[in-house]
Write a structure and sequence with these properties.
- The chain has one domain: Jelly Rolls, CATH 2.60.120.620.
- Helix content is 26%, strand content 29%.
- The chain is globular, with a radius of gyration of 17 Å.
- Bound molecules: N-oxalylglycine and manganese (II) ion.
């Protein structure tokens, strides 16, 4: 029988989204899960399977470097490997969002990301090729426990206020933390990093 109990962790994400259009949750993944995903990311990075991120079709590489400096590897939805830890949990979460909030999530796409020292991602909105299908952006940080303020790499989220001003939220990318926000609404930025910064980043998408 389907288990229709409420999930306190998921409810915490939903409350944040409803109230603020974003949510920060620690402990979405256990330290063991984070450790396994981190090791998987690092071994694939060392195998050289990551690609330098791009910013659209024709942008030249210099422009891309001035905008974002991360290296990425898309997760394979059909993989039976370690990334299942992530993909299965996210599938469960998406099903919960659809069941309890009628959110209409139909697809997901996620990639591992590694920001080498000195890289960043300038302020942007997560629209892609003029498509509006990205509904929620979700990032899970795979850094070591000791990530602190001096290492940079904060995620800055810019919150528009009704009076036209703006509030900036600064989030440290600490181990196991998950940040979820409305892809269409909130501009954000990754501040320069002083030590390689690891994450899984992606989108829960509607069909339009
Ligand atoms: C992105 C992004 C934020 C982060 O990849 O689009 O904004 O904290 N990432 O890694
Ligand atoms: Mn983004």
């Amino acid at each position: 029988m389907e288990d229709l109990q409420t999930n306190p962790l998921y409810e915490q994400v939903i409350d944040g989204l409803l109230e603020n259009n974003y949510s920060i949750v620690d402990g979405f993944f256990s330290p063991e899960e984070v450790f396994a995903l981190r090791a998987d990311l690092l071994s694939k990075y060392e195998e050289d399977s990551f690609k330098k991120s791009a910013i659209g079709h024709n942008a030249d590489e210099h422009i891309a470097d001035a905008v974002r400096g991360d290296f990425i590897l898309w997760l394979d939805e059909t993989s039976a490997g370690v990334e299942r830890i992530f993909l299965d949990k996210i599938a469960d979460f998406a099903e919960y969002l659809n069941r309890t909030c009628y959110m209409g999530i139909r697809q997901k796409e996620f990639h591992y990301a590694l920001y080498p020292e000195g890289t960043f991602y300038k302020r942007h909105l997560d629209n892609f090729h003029n498509s509006n299908s990205r509904k929620l952006s979700l990032i899970c940080y795979l850094n070591t426990e000791n990530w602190n303020e001096e290492l940079g790499g904060q995620l800055a989220i810019y919150i528009p206020k009704p009076d036209g001003s703006e509030e900036t939220i600064s989030i440290n990318p600490v181990q196991g933390r998950v940040v979820v926000f409305e892809s269409q609404l909130l501009e954000h930025e990754v501040m320069p990093v002083r030590q390689p910064r690891l994450s899984i980043t992606g989108w829960l998408k509607t069909s339009n």
